[in-house]
């Protein structure tokens, strides 16, 4: 995968991806190369504003960049970023001033200053949380092993059991696209 903060910029894939693919094909010509698609960040990641894009534009650009790379080299994509976007739409995720609104990305703690009323966060606003880790595992399992994860009965401790069927559905939908 490309570093997620650069994944929406197609020019950052080269020449490193070219060199990596060349090396893999030289040293392990029998290897099947797959690339994991990263995901867009939550609205609280200040880099989005700095880059002049929003969460959806980040996804659209990274999705296109991974697609171009895969097409160039003829390899497949593990569509984790697509699964995250589908999750955000299907749930739907509703961000609030002090909440990730059910997103599978982000695990920061929100605090509200009693004097100013300003809400701030401390922690991670761009990596997967526990639910995201499970969604990602479902996508990898479906893609790499051809398993229909909608039939998965595993229920990780600490996750909302009512949301697991949707998570399985979204993972399969992303892989089938």
Could you characterize what this model shows?
It is globular and about 60 Å long. The protein is mainly alpha-helical. Helices cover 44% and strands 8% of the residues. It has 6 helices and 4 strands. The strands form 2 sheets. It has a two-stranded parallel ribbon with strand order 1-2. It has helices spanning 16-27, 46-51, 55-73, 80-90, 130-145, 164-176; strands spanning 34-36, 76-78, 109-112, 119-122.
The beta-strand count equals 4
Question: What are the segments in which pLDDT stays under 50 over at least 5 consecutive residues?
Answer: none
**Helix content estimate:** 40-55%
Mean pLDDT: 96
Order of H and E elements: HEHHEHEEHH
Oligomer: single chain
Discrete helix count: 6
- Amount of beta strand: 5-15%
Largest sheet: 2 strands, parallel
- Enumerate the strands of the largest sheet in spatial order, edge to edge or round the barrel: 1-2
End-to-end separation? 19 Å
Query: What does the radius of gyration come to?
Result: 18 Å
Q: In one word, what is the shape?
A: globular
Secondary-structure-derived class: mainly alpha
Give structural attributes:
single chain, 177 residues, mainly alpha
What is the fold's blueprint, element by element?
Layout: H1 16-27, E1 34-36, H2 46-51, H3 55-73, E2 76-78, H4 80-90, E3 109-112, E4 119-122, H5 130-145, H6 164-176
Parallel strand pairs: 1-2
Antiparallel strand pairs: 3-4
Helix pairs in contact: 4-6, 5-6
């Amino acid at each position: 995968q490309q570093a997620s903060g650069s994944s929406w910029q197609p020019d950052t894939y080269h020449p490193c991806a070219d060199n990596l693919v060349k090396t893999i094909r030289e040293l392990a010509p029998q290897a099947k190369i797959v690339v994991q698609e990263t995901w867009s960040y939550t609205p609280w990641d200040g880099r989005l504003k700095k880059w002049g894009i929003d969460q959806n534009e980040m996804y659209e650009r990274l999705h296109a960049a991974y697609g171009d790379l895969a097409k160039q080299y003829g390899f497949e994509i593990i569509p984790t970023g697509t699964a995250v976007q589908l999750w955000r739409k299907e749930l739907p995720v509703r961000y609030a001033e002090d909440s990730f609104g059910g997103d599978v990305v982000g695990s920061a703690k929100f605090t509200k200053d009693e004097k100013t009323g300003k809400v701030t966060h401390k922690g991670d606003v761009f990596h997967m949380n526990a639910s995201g880790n499970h969604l990602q595992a479902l996508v990898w399992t479906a893609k790499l092993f051809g398993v229909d994860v909608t039939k998965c009965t595993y229920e990780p401790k600490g996750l909302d059991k009512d949301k697991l069927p949707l998570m399985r559905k979204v993972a399969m939908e992303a892989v089938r696209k």
